[in-house]
# Entry
Amino acid sequence: QVQLAESGGGLVQPGGSLRLSCAASRLTLDYYSIGWFRQAPGKEREGVSSISSSDDYTYYAESVKGRFTISRDNAKNTVYLQMNSLRPEDTGVYYCAAGRFSLSPNFYNYWGQGTQVTVSS
# Structure
């Protein structure tokens, strides 16, 4: 069974940083584009960032440009999301997913269970 597992979430003060990890089992991540999504209470799931399978392309939502960086380590079969200068509006459950290069969740086939990120003083 394919599994994606997110880790690295937690409580951080505004202006702080977190690095999320997305590790895969029974799935070779470098064959897929990987996306990070988040969902705040009462809101729809939104795309945050995506990295293409070839690593040639990355895409960021306007709200996180210049603050978040997506990367992958194929040797570890893991994708990361480095989040700096965090704001309260970044709070939500963060999910990673494997599929096609897009910020739309409709293009992703495999999903993790999510990790909570809370930005609060």
